[in-house]
From TrEMBL:
<keyword id="KW-1015">Disulfide bond</keyword>
<protein>
    <submittedName>
        <fullName>Redoxin domain-containing protein</fullName>
    </submittedName>
</protein>
<dbReference type="GO" id="GO:0016209">
    <property type="term" value="F:antioxidant activity"/>
</dbReference>
<feature type="domain" description="Alkyl hydroperoxide reductase subunit C/ Thiol specific antioxidant">
    <location>
        <begin position="19"/>
        <end position="61"/>
    </location>
</feature>
<dbReference type="Pfam" id="PF00578">
    <property type="entry name" value="AhpC-TSA"/>
</dbReference>
<dbReference type="GO" id="GO:0016491">
    <property type="term" value="F:oxidoreductase activity"/>
</dbReference>
<dbReference type="InterPro" id="IPR036249">
    <property type="entry name" value="Thioredoxin-like_sf"/>
</dbReference>
<dbReference type="InterPro" id="IPR000866">
    <property type="entry name" value="AhpC/TSA"/>
</dbReference>
Length: 61
């Protein structure tokens, strides 16, 4: 894992292939019932997961 600080002193995570992702929770869109729910990576432990982050293209605004 690679943690780097930005100019304000906050830290962000830079993912590396084959490294486990840190545990987190976030809102996710579920197409089956057209809803937004909170999900945590811990709920998916032991399953294959693809994390896709590209918020600018998929906002509802």
């Amino acid at each position: 894992m690679d943690y780097r600080g930005n100019q304000e002193g906050d830290q962000f995570f830079c993912a590396q292939t084959s490294n486990p992702a840190p545990l987190f929770s976030a809102e996710a869109f579920f197409n089956a019932d057209k809803s937004i729910k909170n999900i945590s990576l811990n709920q998916l432990r032991g399953k294959w997961v693809i994390l896709f982050f590209y918020g600018s293209d998929f906002t509802f605004v």
